[in-house]
Write a structure and sequence with these properties.
Layout: H1 3-25, H2 30-51, H3 60-86, H4 89-96, H5 99-110, H6 117-133
Helix pairs in contact: 2-3, 3-4
Length: 135
């Protein structure tokens, strides 16, 4: 699968995830929803282990970043569930969907990736979208 196809599957999956989050917190508290979501992630991890014949890569730096990724994801999900339980899902999803802006800034600072003028315009429009969606 090429990266564009993978990105579209991810886009669809995250879209469904946003709706399912609200449905979950309508019936259980945010912390419990996080626990059950994590169980879902573990199921995907086990399936993935099977796909790679139970031999994950073993580079210490990669493992460390992988664990940190999981910690950041877990923290983000916990607070996302909390926000979803108290706010309108349309606004919560739109606001949290700006997370790529954080990634862009960090990639610029730490990976020396460039940001074009066209991309800067897109970032500005993303802020405008948040203002319009939260009104």
């Amino acid at each position: 699968m090429n990266w564009v196809s993978a990105a579209f599957v991810s886009l669809f999956s995250f879209g469904v995830w946003g709706l399912l989050t609200k449905l979950a917190v309508l019936h259980i508290d945010a912390r419990s929803a996080l626990i059950y979501q994590t169980l879902g992630v573990v199921i995907i991890a086990i399936i993935t282990l099977g796909l790679i014949n139970f031999k994950p890569a073993s580079d210490v730096k990669g493992i460390s970043y992988g664990i940190l990724t999981g910690l950041a994801y877990g923290i983000g999900c916990l607070f996302y569930f909390m926000a979803a339980s108290k706010g309108k899902i349309i606004t919560v999803v739109t606001l949290t969907a700006l997370y790529p802006l954080v990634t862009i800034i960090l990639a610029y600072l730490f990976l020396q990736e460039t940001v074009s003028m066209k991309q800067c315009l897109g970032i500005g429009l993303a802020f405008v979208a948040i203002l319009l969606m939260s009104a």
